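Researcher: Before we compare anything, I want clean individual predictions. No alignment, no superposition, just each chain on its own. First chain goes here; please echo the sequence and then give the structure tokens.
Model: Echoing the first chain and its structure:
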Amino acid sequence: MFADRAKIYVKSGKGGDGHVSFRREKYVPDGGPDGGDGGQGGSVYLEIDEGMNTLSDYRHVRKYAAEDGEKGGKRNCKGKNGKDLILKMPEGTVVKELNSGKVITDLSGENRRFLLLSGGRGGNGNQHYATSTMQAPKYAQPGQPSKELELMLELKLIADVGLVGFPNVGKSTFLTKVSNARPEIANYHFTTLNPHLGVVDVEGVEPFVIADIPGLIEGASDGLGLGHEFLRHIERCKVIIHIVDAASTEGRDPVEDIYAINNELERYNFDIKNKPQIIVANKADCIFLDEGQENPIDKIRKEFEPQGYEVIETAAIKGENVKEVLYRVRKILDEIQDEAIIFEQEFFPEYMLAISDEPFTVTYDDSANEYLVEGPRIEKMLGYTNLESEKGFSFFQKFLKENGILKALEDAGIEEGDTVRLYDLVFEYYK
């Protein structure tokens, strides 16, 4: 079964706790602290697997977790780092945060591997807290907590061209004539239950990838029929081939069919309306006219060519005019900037997860002549945020402002040039 959606839960590893211990040697009566640091928790990575083409593996197993880091030990022994978790996915998988629906990453193009959640940092052992006035610290730092996310995985096929149209209009027949794909063909609705990809490799036409989008009907964008399951696959396509039964072999009006399908595409994603579209008036060999009756293909042309659509008459089952469609599509593709359609990141786990309602305090240390900002909220933010990256530093500045930390510092009397300490992070305050 073709599976192109899945919901999963992922969790990075917790950092190992630092250890509290003291040297105990025969001729060293007052041994100092020697508690080791905890190990780094395992991170969660997403990686493209060229051999995968569905998300079926994630339909059966829905919870994934990286290993926790080990606790530190005696004699300055550092805990073992937790093993990273690497989740393999097919190319074209768009990963979204489940609740917001925002894109975290699009595993396409050059994005072959993505760090989803970094593991928690290991805590410092008590050896780090020895001072001239506290030579036997009985405190060690706990490891940073793990991070977790609920994800929606959506596979959006990577094809240059998408075939759309009502069931039984000849999409699968057209695909077999122009590509190496071999979908099932029969004279009943919903023969195609899975989207099919084919590579067009015809003499005189530079190869491109074409996808048969199954079973669109009126109401598909609202969940009717099977088409709503596959609408997402047309989002990456650069050109749409809209196949219509010009002979009305099932009693439907081809003009109304075209409007109905385009309406469903627009309702699903308004941007699809702006994609170049060629209307293929298929089954021309099945048109039999009475004297004086207007040819339905002429009727289609009169209706849609003034709107900017190109209409090409075909009899796909006989291969008539099929190459003309391919030549035209190739020309349009050549005119379009050859850039892959990649969905931009909207949700940044490392920064979004750092926001919390936990408390913090602002105090002034006279001996060190610096302002101290401490508390669970600060520890959590520092554990999640990579301040060495431009994006991480930008988030850090926003975090200080939106969480009221800058205001609390100002209320405490801070002035420009004063020193601020957030645990191991020290900086000078400037507006």
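Researcher: Okay. Second chain, same rules.
Model: Second chain and its structure:
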Amino acid sequence: MIYLDNAATTKPDSECVKAAEKYILSEFYNPSALYAEGYNLQLELKESRRKILSLIADENNFSLTFTSSGTEADNHAIFCGGKRGNVVTTLGEHSAIYSAVTELKQRGTEVRFAELNSDGSVNIESLLSLIDEKTSIVSIIHVNNETGAVNDIAAISAAVKAKNKNALFHSDGVQAFGKIAFKLSKDIDLYSISAHKIGGIKGCGALIKRKSLALKPFIYGGGQEQGLRSGTENVFGIKCFEFAAIKRYSVLNECLEKVKKLNKDMRSRLDKSLFSFISVENASPYILSVAANGVRGETILHEADDAGLIIGTGSACSSNKKNRYSRIILSCGIDENTADGVLRISFSPENTLSEIEKATEILNRIVKNKKDIMA
């Protein structure tokens, strides 16, 4: 089986899982307990928090709160940061943001959506026109989860603060963390990350915040995570996250170059008479969205699965929605006929060029056969 749906989830790194195994089999204690074994685990969590944070942020200016997922981190930022005035985001956000701000709107908060460029990046002019003195939070995805478009969040956050210095700036960094090189700038207040996109396990994420920002909890209870996220910590998941993040960042540039080659090879091998490209060449190489005009993406997905290839048709977190067409793809200005044939191919450094060759053979064959039947 060839797996090319890594933007949905990655295979857990076996070395990291093995290294963290003791935290679920022998050192299984509650880190909030007063006995030595629990206290020692609390120290372990503190170290995990420090190590992950240090990969992308200045520890003197930022702190990290572990969550159950990137979705929870996004929701924490939106519901605890957007309680007054208006909230500004984009039409290209992951459903964890889009659904959260939609709920805020139903509760009476004004929500404003910036337009997208054709590649899925935010239209800066549209974004800045929506920000005023009443804007409480602005949320801009770092790497678009369907097109791979990269938003320059350092420049965007600076422009946002120039218009309203009191507006909070949040970014969903789930598809950027562990994949592209960056450091959080002083104008970024909140940033969400997730473990299972980089070889960690599902059920663990984090919200990074500027230390000087006073943020209320999203989940209440025993006061874990410095009072910001109650609930007994998932020590096994957190340690897997730590090990996977450190491992990925130790070879970040090598992984990026390898994935660029995989992406380039896929682009060159796909039949241009059958496929059009939605992802631009300067997008994150980890994501390649294409469209098979005239053939439904879902049909291709199932036939590819039968042939031993796993791909996606968009965000896996939106796959249970009734809407036939991707909200994000349509917001890029793509027509419904093209949107109906969209496929999302997403890579891992573990993929090989031989897998790409086989995958393109499968996709070209499926679409050509469908076209021949319809002709």
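Researcher: What stands out in the second chain?
Model: The mean pLDDT is 95. Additionally, The CA atoms of residues 264 and 346 lie 12 Å apart.
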